[in-house]
Each structure stands twice: as C-alpha cells, then as structure tokens.
Amino acid sequence: MATERPSRLRVFSLNCWGIRFFSQLCTQRYEMIGELLCQEQHDIALLQEVWSERDFLFLKRKLSSSHPYTHYFKSGVIGSGLAVFSRHRIQDALLYQYSLNGYPYMLRHGDWFGGKAVGLVIVDVSGLKAHVYVTHLHAEYSRAQDEYLSHRTVQSWELLQFVRHTSCGADLVVLGGDLNMHPQDLGNRLLRSHTGLRDCYTETDTFDVSTLPVTCLFSLFACPVFIGIITVCCSRQGCEDGHTLIADNHFTKKQDLVPFEKGIRIDYILMKGSQRVTMKCESLSTTKGPVADKPFPYSDHEALTAEFALLHSEDSRQRGSSDTLAVSEQMEVVAEARALVKEGLCQTEALRDKAMHLMFGALLLLLLPLAMAFLPCSCSCSFSTLGLLGAVCMVLLLSGALLYLLFTTHIKVLKETEDQMMLTSNDLQTKLTGCQLSGSSSLDGSPEIQPLSPFKREE
Amino acid sequence: MATERPSRLRVFSLNCWGIRFFSQLCTQRYEMIGELLCQEQHDIALLQEVWSERDFLFLKRKLSSSHPYTHYFKSGVIGSGLAVFSRHRIQDALLYQYSLNGYPYMLRHGDWFGGKAVGLVIVDVSGLKAHVYVTHLHAEYSRAQDEYLSHRTVQSWELLQFVRHTSCGADLVVLGGDLNMHPQDLGNRLLRSHTGLRDCYTETDTFDVSTLPVTCLFSLFACPVFIGIITVCCSRQGCEDGHTLIADNHFTKKQDLVPFEKGIRIDYILMKGSQRVTMKCESLSTTKGPVADKPFPYSDHEALTAEFALLHSEDSRQRGSSDTLAVSEQMEVVAEARALVKEGLCQTEALRDKAMHLMFGALLLLLLPLAMAFLPCSCSCSFSTLGLLGAVCMVLLLSGALLYLLFTTHIKVLKETEDQMMLTSNDLQTKLTGCQLSGSSSLDGSPEIQPLSPFKREE
To answer: Which of B76, B441, B445 sits opposite A65 (nearest CB)?
Structure first.
C-alpha cells in the first residue's frame, strides 16, 4: 500500500454553455471562468461546450501563464466543444467521435452539429503518465420519452470501449465531463462497471468541504459528535447530492428539472489508479449557482473540482478481487444495454422504412407530371406547373434518399455495437465458467483445433 | 533472447473485391476463397471489401469448423467490408471509422459509402494476447492528380494513433489490409515509423518459399551455393517485389497499373512483438493471379500469407535502441505529413468557399421570382413559372448548404489532425533535446509551476 507522502492533483470540470448569440452573457461568463481558473490554479481543467474557437483562444491567452498546455478538440460542424487546459505537459492527444449523435434534421436540438466525442490527452504529471479524458454525451430533452436513449447508450458503450482500450499503460486515469445521465442510468453503470472508473462523488469522504484541512477532517470523523456538523457544513456549502443542474442557478430553466426539483447530477469526474499508483479522491466540491461578488453564475451547469492524492502502491490484490466481483455485475449491465440497443435498432429500422416509403411516394408522384406531360389533352396545366410539381417531387425524393442513407448508417452502428456487446458478454461468460468453447458471435461448430505450444500469461 | 521452441502463427489477408452485381464472378470467387481458407487453415484471416453481409454469412457457414470465431465490422452505408475469421477465440472487438473518407457526391468512386475504418480484434492465441487490426484505406484513382491524398494521409494518421494507443498491453500486434499506398508513400512511412510496425515483406528472409520446411531453409542459407536457387525459387513462385496488383491477374484493368507495368504493392501484413514475445516473420507468400485448376483468380488483388515464429523473450534492449534511433525519422515524416495536411486544409477551405458562393448565388436567384411575384406588370410569367424557378433555387440553396456543412466538418478534421501532429512533433522534440519547456501547441508564456513531488518512471 501507500509508502510515501502523497502527491496532489486537482482537476476541474465545467460545461461552459458557450453557444455564441444564444447562451446568455457568454463573454462575461468566459471572463469569470478565466479568472477562476487563473486564481485556482487547478492542475487540469476540462471544459465542455466551448463551441466557439474564439472563446477558446480568449481562455488560452488568459491562461497562458497558469495553464500553458492546452488542446482544443475539433469535430463535427461546430464541435466538439471540448477543451483541456493543463499546468503539466500534454504529450499526445486523440479524438474519438461518437458514431451516433442525434439527427441533423433536429435543428432545435442541434446535438448532431456538435460532433460529440471523447478526447484523450496524455499528460506528464511529474513523471506519471496521466490519461485524461474529456467528453460530452447527447443531451436528454425528455426523460419520459427519450428519443435519444439508444444513441446515448451507444455513446456510453463507445466511451467505455475507448477508455478500456486506450488506458492500458497509464499510471492514472481521469475522466471528466457532462455525461447527460443520472448516476444510476444504464449508460453510467455500463461505463463504471466496464472500465473500473470510480465516481469521485461516491468515493470521496469529504464532499464540498475541501477548504478544511484533511488532517482536521479525519479527526472530526473519528469523533461521532462532529458528524452532524460536517453534514450541516456540506449542505450549506455545496449542492445537495452533488447536483450540477440546480434550481438556484440563474440560468437554469425550472421546467428542465421537473420532476427533480432538488436538482440533477449529470456532470462527473471519474478516476482510477493503476498497479503503480493508488489514486484517492480527497475532496470534491461544486459551485452552487450564484458566485460571490458576481451578478450571475459561471454557467447553467455547476463546476466540479476534485482533489486527488497520488500514492505509490505495489499492492494489486484489492484491484484483483474487485475485478472478480465485478464480472457478474458487468454481465447484467451489458445484457440490459444489449436489450436497449436492440430496441433502438427496431425503432431505427422503422424510421428507415418510413424514409423508403417517402422515396417511393415521391417516385409515384413524379409519374404524375410525366403522365400529364404526355397526355396534354386531359389537362390544362402549363409546362411550368408540371415543372413545379416535378421539382417538388425531386426535393421529396432527395430528402427520402438522404434520410434512408442516414438511418442505414445508424442501423450499421447499432448492429456493430450489439455485436461488440455480445462478444463482451461471451468473454465474461468464459471468465465466469472457464469454458473455452464459448466466445465470439459465431461459435457454430465443434472445432478441432490443434493449439500452439502454450504461452501462459503471468498475470 | 529466445529461449524456447517457437510457436507458429499463420495470418492471411485478402481484398476480396466483393461488390455484388459489379465485381465479376463474385459468388464463384467467394466459393474459392472459402475453399482456400478451409484447406489452408490459417490461424487468422483478414478480409477486406466483403461489402455484402450475405457473403460474410456464406463464409461464416463455410468456415464454421476451421475458423469458428469471427467478427464482421459494420459502418457507413454499405461498410466497412472488414471481416476477421479466426481459429482462436476473439475476446473483444473495437472499430474506429476514419473521419475523412472522400465525398458523398463522388458516386462513381463510392468510398464514402463504404465507411472505411480500422477494426481491432483481441485474440487469445494459446495464452498470448494478440491485437489484430484489419483496415482498408481510401483508394487512389489517379497517382498524378490524387484528390484524396490528404484524406488518405489523415486516415494513416488516425490509423497509427489508433494502433499506438490501443496496442499497449498486447503480446503481439498484427495489422493486415489494403492500405492503397505504395511502400514508400508518406502515409506508409508515417504508419511504420510511429507505430514500430514492421513490414513482413521487408522483414522476411524467405519471400514466397513458404512451402519449403523451415529447417531445410536454414540449412540452405548456411550454404552459399544454394542462395541462387532460393532466388530463382522466389521469382518463379511469387509476385515480383511482393506486388499485390499485377498485370497477370485476369480481373486487373491494365490502365490502373500505368506507369507501374510490373505491378504495385498496396496490400500489407505488418507486425511487431512485445517485450515478452519476439515475433519473427519466417515466410511471406502471395498468390500470383491465376489459380491452379480454377478458371480465374480469387480477386483483383493478390492474397498474402505470413507465417510467424513467436519466441519467448526477456531482452528489450534491441527495441529500446531502435526507438531512440527512430525519433529523428519520426520527426521528419510527421513534418512532411503536416505540410500535406495543411495543403489539404487550403484546398478544402477553397471548396467550402465555393459552396458558400453557391448558397449566395441561389439566394440571389431566389430574389428574382420573389421580385417578379410582387411586380406582376413587368412580367407575363405565370405563378407556376415563378414556383418552378423558386423550387430550383431552393434545390441549389439546399445543395450549397449541405456541401458547406460537409466541407466544414472536413476542415475540423484536418485542423484536429494538424494539431495532433504538432503535439507529436513537440513531444519528439522534447525527447530529442530533453528541453522540458517545449511541448503543446500553446506554450505561450514562461510559466512558474510548482511541481508535484516527483514520481519517476522506471522505464
């Protein structure tokens, strides 16, 4: 276990709500965010919804001394909105744009244009290799009738696969961002159970009392009399239950919170250590709407700040045992996700059928002006009328074709995700039962395979 | 160094040219490919251009005994065309669709619809963790005027980043596929220099003499007299210079080979071992157009088969020294790639400007029928004529808007790639000079940072 005085790492995450000409008081809020970051000197700041590159460049100038290393991830039409500011050197960056992200014709939602993605930066934190992920998932516009649920679930799957396969070799892993999911939502459980990432809010002993020295806190916890005081302290200083969308925020639309009047927790900082480094979340804090000496909050979301202790560790037993325990939970949650993706597949197939009907309808309608053109006696329509009708049919036909292409690509993504989930299920089953015959999607026969001379893993 | 009798791994790669109703003799060729794979019993077969799922399912049934583990990667409208058949258990799969892949309006090329991607399967090869990649990059339709060069370079960059960041923890890494690049093309050099993957064709001592037993080969090599015989044997049995597009192939269009009459090498099997396993390519062979006892070849591409020896190894010195040597080469090649991506960026910005002009033109044209509608005296046009004109303007406006969106997303991808390349350049520079102040794209100031208590990597 820990053998040395711990190093510290402070991570900040905020959805900046930076839609130029739409988000209220955008320029002033970026000024405030810049001031906060300059002043607080977090090691790493993870920002979402920095939609305008001009705003990113403003922050970059403002933070050039405090956070000299930055990366702004670009994707989609106006996205990805993801930015990282770091006090430590960024060695490398990689972007994975989610395959499903809403529909281009849903202009009033607009997520499609944002090119939602997960960005990875590899940061050298005093000799430690930190893999830091920042992400923003598709918004939830209606909890009762969430037409984007399958999209968000696929995004969660792609996020967890990306983290799983790119975090090997990291000394520490941090993920921050706006997941647009409640703590116990399927996508969130999927992410945590399959990556081993832990939620700072549930992991920390000291939510929102980060101003108190840690030694003092431990002594408080040791004495039952003071527990009440700590509770009071938490509820007074921070958002209840770690909410990041709250009614007290000047910019929050109250109807968006119904039926969660107290607030919603959709922004997260998740973390995990490695066999070399134990990562402990010593404190987590949130802003709470209004800002002292300022007329309005930083954003319509609350900001998160996590402080980690990094300890040398040679003991991997704990990790191993939790891995074993997690397998059955992983299987359950992946089965649930598969069912949801299948449902999304059926819905998308129905949409594709509708697009095909639109195409066929437009084709039939196109026959009408053609027939009228060849039968001039039966109709008094002018050439222009026929042309207009033809042009309308062509627009309908093109729209149908574009929609058909869109839904076909969505179906491909959903099928690919389902296949990957099945593969993972089978692999987990194999782990559980030790049966070497299960596995891929296509174990149809009873193969008689001559194995290579065995290499045994030393794990 | 190697301490045990080596295990063997045989890998097959083929671009199947499986465009239903377009590729000649598709059904018959899939029959032949299935027979070959059944008979040869490669450990892993990597197929590209299996565009139809029905053809994949045919192969899956046919190979259910010999290759019981499969994964078919799905992406784009009709893609990705990538399939893996394995004798060993596939544990997991992950897909990365390239961000740039031609243009949807280039219907006669059609790459855009293929959703070109790189697929990763993690295969348990007798206790070894093999990361096996299969990919297919954008085609080159004209070497003299290659309008897709920047797209293919971005794809190469994304491929190398994906391999770099997902291959950590693998005991062995194999990449097979149709890269659509000549051996010394920029994208190919970029891929090899930044991933450490080695080309089986240049690595193997015994190209196309795989039918001879290895022990016999070693004894032949020991005797200088027999070197001439081996050379003769190579040139007689295999494609010259490892070409995979050759004039001798029944399906190859001869004009596609000009000015490379002898053939082109665009299909590859690349590989690297790990600190635990030394991977040696013992032989590489290609098909050579016509197939014995068959009326036509397997495809318009030639198939590759590589045989690897896998040896236990504890000696990482060689790897370390080659890493150091490679840094300057990596810097050169990434600088070359950055220049090319910048050029692509300028071209795409010009295309976006054209799309904007189209939009403005259509808007101005739209004013014409509107003006005519409000000035009935000055024109004898009917309502229908105005409507037709309006509809045409709307179609032009929509087309302009769609193209504008398309090119805007392309610009985002090109900028992101350039930023990542700059980050990599700076990191390499830091490695070379040891200067801790260089690095990210945004080292603007002279920061005074208090470091954490140092963790030193033990590498």
So the answer is: B445
| pLDDT per residue as tens digits for the range B28-51 | 999 999 999 999 999 999 999 999
Of A93, A440, A454, the CB nearest to B89: A440
Minimum CA–CA partner of A405 in chain B: B77
| Neighbour count for residue B198 (Cβ, 10 Å) | 17
Please state whether the peptide bond connecting residue B446 to the residue before it is cis, i.e. omega within 30 degrees of 0: no
Residue of A9, A92, A115 with shortest CB distance to B424: A92
Residue to test with chain A: of B66, B89, B402, most A Cβ within 10 A: B89
CA distance A120 to A135: 9
Q: Which residue has the tokens 């059955």?
A: A328
Task: Specify the DSSP class assigned to residue A290.
Answer: S
Q: Which of B124, B276, B384 to mutate to test the interface with A (most CBs of A within 10 A)?
A: B384
- Of B86, B143, B148, the closest CA to residue B114 belongs to B148
- The tens place of each residue's pLDDT in chain A, 459 residues long, gives 444 445 899 999 999 999 988 999 999 999 999 999 999 999 999 999 999 999 999 999 999 999 999 999 999 999 899 999 999 999 999 999 999 999 999 998 999 999 999 999 999 999 999 999 999 999 999 998 999 999 999 999 999 999 999 999 999 999 999 999 999 999 999 999 999 999 999 998 877 643 433 333 333 344 333 333 333 333 335 678 889 999 989 898 888 888 888 899 999 999 999 999 999 999 999 999 989 889 999 999 999 999 999 998 765 444 444 555 578 889 999 999 999 999 999 999 999 999 999 999 999 988 877 777 666 555 556 666 777 787 888 889 989 999 999 999 999 999 999 999 999 999 999 888 764 444 444 443 333 334 345 555 443
**Which stretch of DSSP H or E encloses residue A323?**
helix A317-374
B134 and B75 in contact (C-beta within 8 Å)?
Answer: no
**Given an 8 Å threshold on Cβ–Cβ distance, is B441 in contact with A312?**
no
Q: Between vectors from CA B347 to CA B341 and to CA B353, what angle results, nearest 5°?
A: 135
* Residue-by-residue DSSP string for B177-213: EE--S-TTSHHHHHHHHHH--EEHHHH-S-BT-TTS-
> Are the beta carbons of A457 and B419 separated by less than 8 Å?
no
A294 CA: distance to closest CA in chain B (Å):
28
Q: Which residue of A has its CA nearest to B405?
A: A77
Torsion B174-B179-B183-B186 (CA) sign: negative
B428 phi/psi in degrees, rounded to 5? -65, -40
The minimum CA-CA distance between B345 and chain A, rounded to whole Å, is: 14
Cite the active site residues of B.
301
Tell me if A412 and B436 make a contact (CB, 8 A cut-off).
Answer: no
Question: Would you say how long chain B is, in residues?
Answer: 459
Count other C-beta atoms under 10 Å from residue B259's C-beta.
Answer: 6
Tokens (6 digits) for B388: 């037709």
Determine, for residues B93 and A69 on separate chains, whether the beta-carbon distance falls below 8 Å.
Answer: no
Q: What is residue B49's three-state secondary structure? A: coil
pLDDT one-digit tens code per residue, B366-413: 887 777 766 655 555 666 677 778 788 888 998 999 999 999 999 999
Residues of B in contact with A387 (CB under 8 A): 384-385, 388
Cβ atoms of B44 and B133 within 8 Å: the answer is no
- Nearest Cβ partner of B76 from A129, A412, A451? A412
**Residue from B449, B450, B458, B459 to probe the interface with A (highest A Cβ count within 10 Å):** B449
Amino acid (one-letter) located at B74:
K
Active-site residue set of A:
301
Q: B99 — phi, psi (to 5°)?
A: -75, -30
DSSP at A239: -
φ, ψ for residue A318, nearest 5 deg: -60, -45
From B429, which residue of chain A is nearest by alpha-carbon distance?
Answer: A91
